[in-house]
Design a protein that fits this description.
The chain has four helices and seven strands, in the order E-H-E-H-E-H-E-H-E-E-E. With about 150 residues, the chain is of the alpha+beta class. Helix 2 packs across helix 4.
């Protein structure tokens, strides 16, 4: 299951499609349309199939389904959260992943994202998530928290 490759109108997603429609083995449409700060990421959302496959690989590597603090973000939502001007969240290619078991397990998520082919991985200060981006091919990991994984 590779996820959708079209924009989805979350208020009128189409016949037989609801927020609880499974997009991949571990995630529903609603799981991807979330922002910890904005609530929903937007009315119209896009989820990059490569990112969905990457996220499934992360779940497999961790042995459990990690939560998503932020998935797709509309440009307006991205501005409200102070996201990067060209954030990969706006193209559905990045997720802020909550480490299973808490913040002390962020390195497990960093390693899993690296193994799953994320092109850019970032940890921030004392934040409760790891940013994993499958829209970039840079192969970079950064930490603003001094976290060394």
């Amino acid at each position: 299951m590779a996820g959708p490759s079209v924009f989805i109108d979350t208020q009128n997603p189409g016949e037989g499609v609801t927020a609880s429609t499974r997009v991949s083995n571990n995630y529903t449409l609603n799981n991807f349309n979330v922002s910890g700060t904005c609530g929903q990421g937007g009315r119209f959302i896009y989820i990059d199939p490569r990112a969905v496959l990457g996220l499934e690989r992360v779940a497999s590597a961790l042995g459990t389904r990690p939560g998503i603090n932020s998935g797709y973000r509309s440009p307006g939502c991205n501005r409200r959260v102070g996201g990067a001007t060209y954030s990969r969240h706006m193209s559905g290619a990045a997720f802020d992943i909550a480490p299973p078991g808490g913040t002390e397990n962020r390195c497990d998520v960093v390693r899993a994202c690296r193994t799953a082919g994320a092109g850019f991985i970032m940890t921030y200060g004392r934040s409760t998530h790891v940013h994993c981006d499958w829209g970039s091919s840079r192969g970079e990991s950064h930490s603003e928290s001094g976290l060394s994984c």
